[in-house]
Structures are given as C-alpha cells and as structure tokens.
Design brief:
The chain is an all-beta fold and 122 residues long. The chain is built from no helices and 8 strands.
C-alpha cells in the first residue's frame, strides 16, 4: 500500500457530515482495531474546494477514542494521509488521520512562535 501525505491547508473548508462511528469488519461484525489494539472510528468529512463550488465527502479513519465532533461542525484534520489500496482486483483510496477535532478547539491552535533572534522582534 502506498501512503501519501495530504496538505490539509489546501483542501478548503472541512465539515463533519457523518458523526464518528466505529469501523466494523463486514465479515465478523466486530469493531476493527489498529495494530496497537485501539478501536478505529470513521468520520464523514465534507471537503469544499476553495477554487470551486464543488464538495466531496471522504471517510477519515481515526484510531483511539471517538473524535469529539458533531454533524455540521467545522473540523480540523491532523496528519491526514491517503492510502491507495488494491484487494481482489478492486482498487481505491482510503484516508487516515491522527485526529479530527472541532475547528474552534483550543488544542488545535498552533503554538506561539518563540521570540528572539531571526524573528524580527527586538
């Protein structure tokens, strides 16, 4: 499988359109887990391109606790990667992230840059 990092800043507006739900193994009916044994949740995220009126919905898998997002809420997606896959002659792309958080989340804001040499501050 090929993993491709996605530049989320270029995607435009991201919104939760399907709240988190556990990813289910279709064969066994069990909740899927990652390599570390953490539950995998799926969030439907609408991606509205900044250059057009077009919007797409992608399903983003996140391991651990269910992401704290609600339907209709703007979100930030951290460390998004696209994973190209092929199974039994079928091909597709799935998406994984380290987190999906509300856009207004205090924990998602960037850290302040240190002041000092090279920053233009005196």
């Amino acid at each position: 499988m090929q993993t491709i990092p996605v530049d989320v800043a270029r995607l435009g507006t991201l919104m939760c359109v399907v709240p988190p739900e556990p990813r289910i193994n279709q064969e066994t009916g069990q909740i899927r887990t990652d390599r570390d044994g953490n539950r995998v949740y799926v969030v439907g995220v609408s991606v509205r391109q900044t250059t057009s009126r077009r919007a797409d919905v992608i399903e983003v898998a996140v391991s651990g606790e269910a992401p704290p997002v609600l339907e209709g809420q703007r979100v930030h997606v951290r460390d998004l990667v696209a994973v190209a896959w092929e199974i039994d002659g079928r091909r597709g792309t799935s998406f994984r992230a380290s987190a999906v958080v509300p856009a207004d989340s205090q924990t998602d804001k960037p850290s302040p840059q240190p002041r000092g040499k090279g920053t233009g501050d005196a």
